[in-house]
Design a protein that fits this description.
389 residues, alpha+beta, Uridine Diphospho-n-acetylenolpyruvylglucosamine Reductase, domain 3, Alpha-Beta Plaits, 13 helices, 24% strand
Length: 389
Amino acid sequence: MSTSIESWQPESVEVLRQVLESNFRGPKAKVLPVGGGSSLPPVQCGVHLQTGQLNSVVDYPHRDMTITVEAGIRMAVLAEVLAEHGQRIPIDVPQRFRATLGGAIACNASGSTRYGHGTFRDYVIGISAIDGQGRAFSAGGRVVKNVAGYDLCKLLVGSEGALAVISQVTLRLKPLAASRRLVRADIDSVDVLDAVLEMLNTSKTRPVLLDVLNPVASGSCYQVFVGYDGTEAETSWQANQVLEELKAAEPQSLVIENEEDTDRLWSRLNTFQAAPPADGFVLRAQVLPSLSAKLLDSLQDLSVQLHGDGIIHIHLEGGSGVLDRITRIRRQLQQAEGSLVVLNPAAGWGPEERLGPLPSHWQIVQQIKASLDPAEVLSPGWFDETSRI
């Protein structure tokens, strides 16, 4: 059997629409939308639909703090365009030189600054896409409006290309930060870690980043990172303020990182989720923030990064018992009303292995999928319950 994969590279949104319509009316080949290829799932398909040539800036009224671009633009290129007017999308997407905007939105990719700045759902105010039948549709605009029915902007964020191929996006922007500061606390016990996290809940400061590396991930001890961005005066005051607040917990050490180390560590924290061990997996767990330190303590043999909003990234080595270990971790999370997703599942894994027990709203998800992609040609395997191993 041939395993060759065909590549489609439409040069315009209209060509994209035409190829999807033609495919729906004809061969109904399985199509995997591909942005920068930084988060490709191991699914069986006949076609990679490359969107990299759809990379134009459509409209940039910078005084309105919005921009409309085609979805294939690289995140790093978009950042350069925005920086010329002192603006940004404050989402640290891993592998930004490779990732495209559409791909990042489809995966709902975000880094550590989600703690203070949120995710793409907070910035996408307009979106255009082509569904599996080749039908173009748009939602939202430059002004957020209250509408009846599904919010298609938010629905497509994190849909992983299984509902439609994103072609154009309108984003709201924020001013470029003039300064960043990072405070690091080294901690030798979970009890002290819990105390530090509790103090940060009542801090007078407003961190945009709050991450913890466990001893395996840091190579030494529990390390808490508290990050700020804004003006020089804002970041300086907040870093010094939180330094004083955390002294009461008596950590092993407490330091404000210099500019060079801030950049290095900030980058490392953002890329942890995109750097699985060789032949291994990255798991994304979510739990109530109040229970996160306890969960961290139960995963002492694994490399783990905890975010202040209760999201946890776990590195897990591959091997014959990997599914059993994932199941045990998932059960532990479910007992705490949490959840677990495998970000880079192995070939053949279906929704149950990747997501665990299907959520109560899964039937609604399938109904939306059937409406937009009735032939199930887009992102094969992601919504197919029969693909479980």
